[in-house]
């Protein structure tokens, strides 16, 4: 199953990445101003490869293994309730996906609250532009910690292994979508963000203004930000000209691949 699941996830990831990159190329929302795109993309894709490499050789299989173990042992909330039949399986999968999305909302919020976690998460936020490559800009240690955090919830929920595969594909697919340098027509964006996180909603989270950085933590469903009172509708400045990134990390040293790998360990 691991091999099939890995191929499926890679295929979905590559397809959504290609669609978003094409969309950005044809109709970019914000102009590519001072973007040193080759350097940014080298940093962001470099992090993706390092993160993927590190997890592959460490905790890569942890989530699926946790799901299989929970299934065999009958552990977790969903297994305890004992949903049966195909509709029970479907409902169980849906519950797992929604609950994991809520867990990721809190993981994200905690990375902003706990100073040690923020040191690593600021690698994602110090990107001075906002496009599909921002979605993959995470310190490898944060990816590793996240895999362990999610594995805990997979066991606690008793999530089905295939629900985990679908959720993981959705997690990366939605991250690529909501970091896109694209814009949906106002009415459509409003309608969509009643349910899911849109690029216009998530861009606020990358604002240089700290009260806006500390908002809109959601990844798939927008309901968590409304429920836990962290929703900010739009930036104080304006979407086109808003400054992206962190005030204290705008120098060249904070933007190279080596620079971001070292970023958690240095003072601003
Ligand atoms: Zn964040």
UniProtKB/TrEMBL annotation:
Q: Which InterPro entries match?
A: Fatty_acid_hydroxylase (IPR006694), Sterol_desaturase/TMEM195 (IPR051689)
Tell me where in this chain the Fatty acid hydroxylase domain is found: 94-228
| Coiled-coil residue windows | none
Q: Tell me, what is an example of a GO biological process annotation in this record?
A: membrane lipid metabolic process
Q: Which GO terms describe its molecular function?
A: glyceryl-ether monooxygenase activity; iron ion binding
What topology does it adopt in the membrane?
A: Multi-pass membrane protein
Q: Where in the cell is it found?
A: Endomembrane system
Identify the GO cellular component terms for this protein: endomembrane system; membrane
- Please list every transmembrane segment annotated in the UniProt record, as residue ranges: 6-26, 47-69, 89-106
Keywords assigned? Lipid metabolism, Membrane, Oxidoreductase, Transmembrane, Transmembrane helix
The name of this protein is: Fatty acid hydroxylase
């Amino acid at each position: 199953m691991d091999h099939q699941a890995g191929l499926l996830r890679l295929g979905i990831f590559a397809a959504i990445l290609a669609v978003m990159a094409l969309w950005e190329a044809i109709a970019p929302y914000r102009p590519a101003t001072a973007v040193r795109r080759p350097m940014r993309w080298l940093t962001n894709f470099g992090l993706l490869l390092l993160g993927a490499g590190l997890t592959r050789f460490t905790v890569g299989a942890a989530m699926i293994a946790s799901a299989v173990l929970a299934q065999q042992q009958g552990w977790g909330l969903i297994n305890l309730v004992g949903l049966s039949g195909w509709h029970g399986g479907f409902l169980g999968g849906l519950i797992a996906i929604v609950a994991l999305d809520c867990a990721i909302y809190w993981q994200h919020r905690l990375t902003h609250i706990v100073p040690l976690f923020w040191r690593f998460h600021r690698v994602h936020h110090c990107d001075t532009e906002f496009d599909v490559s921002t979605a993959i800009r995470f310190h490898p240690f944060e990816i590793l910690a996240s895999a362990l955090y999610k594995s805990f919830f997979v066991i606690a929920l008793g999530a089905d292994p295939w629900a985990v595969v679908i959720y993981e594909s959705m997690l990366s697919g939605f991250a690529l979508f909501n970091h896109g340098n694209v814009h949906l027509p106002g009415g459509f964006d409003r309608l969509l963000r009643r349910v899911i996180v849109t690029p216009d909603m998530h861009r606020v989270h990358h604002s240089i203004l700290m009260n806006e950085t500390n908002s809109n933590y959601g990844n798939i469903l927008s309901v968590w930000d409304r429920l836990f009172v962290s929703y900010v509708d739009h930036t104080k400045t304006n979407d086109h000209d808003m400054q992206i990134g962190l005030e204290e990390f705008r120098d060249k040293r904070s933007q190279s691949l080596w620079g971001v790998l070292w970023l958690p360990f240095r003072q601003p």
